[in-house]
Specification:
single chain; 376 residues; mainly alpha; 3 strands; globular; binds carboxymethyl coenzyme *A; Citrate_synthase_sf; Citrate_synthase_AS; citrate synthase activity
Length: 376
């Protein structure tokens, strides 16, 4: 229980205005710049959504072509970044690799401290283009493989598969991946976005804000949940064990990963579309192990709803989808970063538009003032 005047976790606290996105509680829907995310995911590419978040409007054909051309040209990594990333320990978590990479992008950029809207738009496009290259190279490094250069003939999602696996899967799989990127792109004042806004509010640079946001997203109560979902499913192992495992986990007061949400209390608006896309992946897999995992996924979803009345969040179907697409589990949260960077950078721009230093207060509950004892 919060002491009077204290809002632990800032639950329910409105800290600023935003025109980037909103959750409409009455209809349980999410809009980006006014457009329902389900409609965007059904009809638009991830690049179009990235443009929308950045400029406030969807691009026309010419604007999209120019945006895509620039994104494709910016993909190759600078030599220093590429070389330094290979020197990180091979045991290093991919989120640490990504956090380090963004820090290096800042160190390599002579305009790092230019916070003008034009400079920040250029940096946000750099991040959109280069982050998938880092994630893919690291995915291959964990498998002892050399990186594959980006292919400027391919769109962002297709190119990511190409750089990870040396091949682009069937369009339905690419589309499912793209849907996940669109759904992950933006979610108002979530913990990592708020982190980016806090850093920006001190007039620090965009790379510092994104580096900090990656640190916030890594935690399992936030973006790290998609990775944690897979660890949990592996721990349970068998669909027949879901209910029994859940009882034990709840008795031990464990949080069930991929369930619950600070904002949605009657189900995450993004889940139905992601679950449908994941179901399509399950239907096309011939792998009995994958089918068994999907059955366990469904059994646990029903058990959590029955026992606790808690609904899955986006990380629950997305985690399974990424596994079925062939990505290794530690890559799941970095994929989330590749997408959410669009929301973060839109919020950084907005924060700078009407900046106020974010500096809350704490209600002190330590010892009363007392004299320092004489040194002995
Ligand atoms: N497993 C078990 N109990 C839960 C869960 C869960 N996943 N989520 C909420 N509850 C219970 C919680 O224990 C509490 O019960 P009680 O009142 O008896 O103590 C009640 O529901 C309210 O939960 P809360 O933790 O006060 O709610 P919150 O708004 O602070 O937490 C949350 C939101 C996301 C941190 C939490 O639901 C959670 O830890 N979920 C698991 C991690 C997860 O999936 N995170 C991803 C979040 S959404 C996408 C993203 O950001 O990546």
């Amino acid at each position: 229980v919060n002491p009077p005047g204290v809002h632990r976790g800032l639950a329910g606290v409105v800290v600023d205005t935003t025109a980037v996105s909103t959750v409409i509680q009455e209809t349980n829907s999410l809009t980006y710049r006014g457009y329902p995310v389900q409609e965007l995911a059904a009809h638009r590419s991830f690049e179009e959504v990235a443009y929308l978040l950045r400029y406030g409007e969807l691009p026309d054909a010419g604007q999209l072509r120019e945006f895509e051309t620039r994104e494709r040209a910016l993909r190759p990594l600078g030599r220093t970044t590429a070389e330094l990333l290979t020197r990180l320990p091979s045991t290093c978590h991919p989120m640490d690799v990504l956090r380090t990479a963004v820090s290096l992008f800042g160190a390599e950029d002579p305009t790092e401290d230019d916070g003008s809207p034009a400079a920040n738009r250029a940096k946000s496009l750099t991040l959109l283009a280069k982050l998938p290259v880092v994630v893919a190279a690291d995915h291959r490094r964990r498998r002892g493989l050399d990186p594959i250069l980006p292919d400027p003939a391919l769109g962002l999602a297709e190119n990511f598969f190409h750089m990870c696996f040396g091949a682009v899967p069937e369009p339905e799989v690419v589309r499912c991946f793209e849907i996940s990127l669109i759904l992950y792109a933006e979610h108002s004042f979530n913990a990592s976005t708020f982190t980016a806004r806090v850093v920006t509010s001190t007039l620090s640079d965009l790379y510092s804000a994104v580096t900090a946001a990656i640190g916030a997203l890594k935690g399992p109560l936030h973006g790290g949940a998609n990775e944690a979902v897979m660890h949990m499913l592996r721990e349970i192992g068998d669909p027949g064990r879901a209910a029994e495992w859940l009882d034990g986990a709840l008795a031990a007061r464990r949080k069930i990963m991929g369930f619950g949400h600070r904002v949605y209390k009657h189900g995450d608006s993004r889940v139905p579309l992601m679950q449908e896309a994941t179901d399509r992946l399950v239907a096309r897999t011939g792998d009995p192990e994958a089918v068994r995992l999907a059955a366990l996924h469904t059994a646990l979803r029903h058990a959590v709803l029955d026992r606790k009345g808690i609904h899955p969040n986006l990380d629950y179907p997305a985690g399974l989808a990424y596994h079925l697409m062939g990505f290794d589990t530690p890559a799941f949260t970095p994929i989330f970063v590749m997408s959410r960077v669009t929301g973060w950078t839109a919020h950084i721009t907005e924060q700078l538009d009407h900046n106020a230093l974010i500096r809350p207060l704490g209600a002190y509950n330590g010892p009363d003032q007392r004299p320092v004892p004489m040194a002995v």
